[in-house]
Amino acid sequence: MAKRVHNFNPGPAALPLPVLEQMRDEMLDWNGTGMSVMEVSHRSKPWEAFQAQTTADLKTLLGAGDDYSVLFMGGGARTHFALVAMNLRPKGAFAEYAITGNWAEGACKEAKKLGDAREIFNSAGTKHDRVPEPGSLKISREAAYFHYTCNNTVEGTEWHYVPDTSGATLVCDMSSDFMSRPVDVKKYGLIYAGAQKNVGPAGVVIIIIRKDMLARSAPDLPEMFSYAKVEKEQSLLNTPPVFAIYAVGLVAKHLIKQGGLAAVERLNKQKADLLYGALDASGGYYRPHAQKGSRSLMNVTFRLPTTELEEKFAAEAKKAGMEGLKGHRSVGGMRASIYNAVSLESVKTLVAFLDDFKKRNG
Ligand SMILES: *Cc1c(COP(=O)(O)O)cnc(C)c1O
C-alpha cells in the first residue's frame, strides 16, 4: 500500500482513492483498446461513448434537464471569466457582479476589460468574511446576467442560498463546491467549474449551459471562444483534455455509487461541523475567518494567535502527515480544504491535532 497523506490542498486537491486505483489499473489498456486513455483518438467510438456517458452522469447527478448542455473546455476557470462576458453579454449591455472574494474580483475585472460590468456588492471592507444576506441584493432585471462565486476558495465563505435575480440570467462560478451538494440547476443560465477542486485533475472546465443562452454567442467570436460553436461540436471542436475528462467521468460514477449529491452533502456537512465545532470550542485560540452564516463547507479558514504559531502549526501538521494547511498568500492564516474526496478520518485526524497543538502551545 502506497503511503498517502491527509490531503487538505486547495486545488489541485484530493481525489477519491478508488478512482486513482482504477486509473492505475487501466493505465496500459483502457477499455480493451490496448492503449492508455491518453493514446486513443478523441474521435474514436470508445472515447465518444465515454464522453457521452460522462455527460449523462453529470446531468443525472445535477438533475439537469434536456434544456441544458454540458461542455468540456480548457483554459481553466480563469479563461471563462472572459468567455462568460464575451458570450452572454451582448454589445452595449451590462452585467452585474457580487465581489465576495479574490476569484469573484478576478471574474469582474476581466468582464470590465471587455465592456460594462458593475459591482453591486463588495465585502472587501470586511476582508471578504461574508456573502450578502439573503434578500439584500438588488439585481437589475435589465442586466444581461448576474455573476457570483458560490464558494470563495481563498476566504472560506459560501453562499447557502441561490440569489433571486428578479428575472435576470444567473451565472455562477462553482469551481470549488461543484458536486459537493445538490444544485437547483434550472435557476441558472450558466454554471462553470474548473475540475481540480472537487471532481478531477486540472485541465478541464465543466460548463452547464441552458440552451437558450447559446443564441447570445455572436457569430464573429473566435470559434474556440464561442460556447455555441463548442456546443454544436459536442466539445470536440478541437482535441479536448481527454485525460482530465476521463478522470471526471470516473469521479462522477464514484459519486453516483456513493448515493448522489444529497449523500455527498450529508458527509460534507458532517466533516465541516466537526471542524468548525473544534475551532469554536477552542476558546478563541483558533479564530475562524468567515462569519457564521457564510461559512464554507469546502474551505475552512482560521487564524492562530500569532503568525509565528501559524508557521509552527503548518510545519508540525506536515510532519504529522497533513498536507496543504497554509492559507492563501493573499490572506494568510490557515486553510483546510475538505473537498468531497477528503475523508471523515482525515478531518478527525486534523481535529485531534488542533487539540494537541493548542495544549502544547496555548
Ligand atoms: C481555483 C478557482 C478558480 C481558478 O481556476 P483555474 O482553473 O486555475 O483557472 C476560479 N474560481 C474559483 C472559485 C476557484 O476556486
Major sheet attributes: 7 strands, mixed
Work out the number of β strands. 14
Q: Can you tell me the CATH class of the largest domain?
A: Alpha Beta
Strand proportion, as a percent range, falls in: 15-25%
DSSP helical segment count: 9
- The CATH topology of the largest domain is given as Aspartate Aminotransferase, domain 2
Q: Which CATH architecture of the largest domain?
A: 3-Layer(aba) Sandwich
Counting structural domains, the number is 2
Q: List the uncertain runs.
A: none
Would you write up a description of this structure?
The protein has 362 residues and is of the alpha/beta class. It folds into two domains: 240 residues, Type I PLP-dependent aspartate aminotransferase-like (Major domain) (Aspartate Aminotransferase, domain 2), CATH 3.40.640; 102 residues, Aspartate Aminotransferase, domain 1 (Alpha-Beta Complex), CATH 3.90.1150.10. The chain has nine helices and 14 strands. The strands form four sheets. A seven-stranded mixed β-sheet has the order 2-10-9-8-5-3-4, with helices on both faces. Helix 4 links the parallel strand 3 and strand 4. It starts with 5 loop residues before the first strand and ends with a helix. The model has no long low-confidence stretch (mean pLDDT 97). Bound molecules: pyridoxal-5'-phosphate. The site of pyridoxal-5'-phosphate has 12 residues, from helix 3.
Please describe the structure with a list of short key phrases separated by commas or semicolons.
single chain; 362 residues; alpha/beta; Aspartate Aminotransferase, domain 2; Aspartate Aminotransferase, domain 1; 7-stranded mixed β-sheet; 3-stranded antiparallel β-sheet; 9 helices; 14 strands; binds pyridoxal-5'-phosphate
